[in-house]
Amino acid sequence: MQRDLDVLIVGAGPAGIGAALTAHRRGLRVAVVDKHSFPRDKTCGDGLTTGALRLLEQLGIRVPAVARYQRVEQVVLVSPSGRRVELPLPEHGEHSAVVPRVELDAALVEHARAAGVEIRETHALTGLAERGTDTRAHAEKGGMRATFADGSTDDARFVIGADGHWSTVRRLREPNRPRDLGTWHAVRQYFRHVDDRRQWVLFPEELLPGYAWVFPLPDGRANVGFGVLREDGTKGSSATKGKQVADLWSRVLEHPWMREILGPDAEPEDRTSAWPIPAAFDAARLSDGPVLYVGDAAGVVDPMTGEGIAQALETGVLAASAIAGSPAIAVGGAADAVATRYTRDVKRALGRDLRFAAALQRVLHSPLGARASIATVGLSGWTRRNFARWMFEDYPRAAVFTPDRWKRGMFTAPGAYADAGLRSAEQ
Ligand SMILES: Cc1cc2nc3c(=O)[nH]c(=O)nc-3n(C[C@H](O)[C@H](O)[C@H](O)COP(=O)(O)OP(=O)(O)OC[C@H]3O[C@@H](n4cnc5c(N)ncnc54)[C@H](O)[C@@H]3O)c2cc1C
Hints:
By secondary structure, the chain is of the alpha+beta class. It has helices spanning 14-25, 50-58, 101-114, 136-141, 168-173, 238-254, 256-262, 309-324, 328-331, 335-363, 367-377, 381-391; strands at 4-10, 30-33, 47-48, 70-71, 74-78, 84-88, 97-98, 118-120, 125-130, 144-148, 153-161, 184-192, 199-202, 211-217, 221-229, 267-268, 273-277, 287-288, 291-293.
């Protein structure tokens, strides 16, 4: 069956679902395709910041009701010297949570489907061509023709590439571009029998400016992992890098801090899984004719923390809003106006935060910089509380330097779901 859509979204992760719900709400004819069937895993720390939780709430998704939701109340940073700084999170509303992506992403797909969005699973995109060369009618409409693994096709005025780091959409549009191995390389493994319920972020010297984490999950489970910066995302043998990463993982697990946090009974539940993190934001690569890129396909991950779920949701929402808000949708073609608006909106919403985070990441390169930063965070109750809000994207990273985004109460607002009174234990 071939349809004529306003927008075809490739990828049903957070970026794709954020775009799909927005497009559907705005009255666009939209369909989402994903090469996997849900539930499917995505290698991730599973951490949801305040920013991500608020965006999910705005999209109508009750995340605290999702299976295996774990509310976080206490965060601990460990500096390269071993100094620990505890960060209390505000009580009013959800400020940090952990939900396995296998559950979260399936819940997002289910929610979008219940809202009326058409989602086709095990439907991989394999080809993408500009429409307009075959018939006069197509030339007037503009847009793209997408081909799928089963040979079927769809026509769409716009395509949103929400297909993650190894974006097929990008590869089909830029076939000669070298393979991008990502800015960060990160590893995750689930453990069981972990008693500590705090969210740990550890900065051992050998990982800087990267870090290791232990994120709590219900039933004594934990998501454990680390991320390291790649020296050059486009060079080097991935096999060698893979071996180095495996060695580093063994060292991280043997580290005395890690052994203490995991406790004597902890045992791995599954194999390690590794995935790149794209954090080299380039506004010029957000669009390409009638194609808009969102989430990891757009490289909008926070370069300091490696968090990308909030950014994926936000770029998804902005891309669909740019398409819905443009008169181009009524007349076809005129992709430039949509691309210009989308690029402007992403730069305004995220560009300055991503640049600021990249600058801060450079401070964490040296043990001295990392030690000094964590010592500053731990100076007083006020610094600890406010750093926790800043770290969990309670407000934009570079908010202090961008007065055009200031609004009343932005530094003291309640977390997500504050009015719903939801708590994971009550579900
Ligand atoms: C180890 C690790 C830890 C992380 N920890 C965190 C964290 O704690 N918090 C946080 O906020 N972020 C974290 N991130 C980043 C976060 O995982 C990503 O930024 C986020 O998943 C991006 O969402 P997305 O929707 O853009 O892409 P994805 O979640 O990757 O979704 C892309 C979708 O596209 C589909 N797809 C791909 N190709 C095709 C095709 N050809 N046809 C159809 N569908 C296709 C895939 O099946 C997939 O469902 C971490 C990343 C890593 C690697």
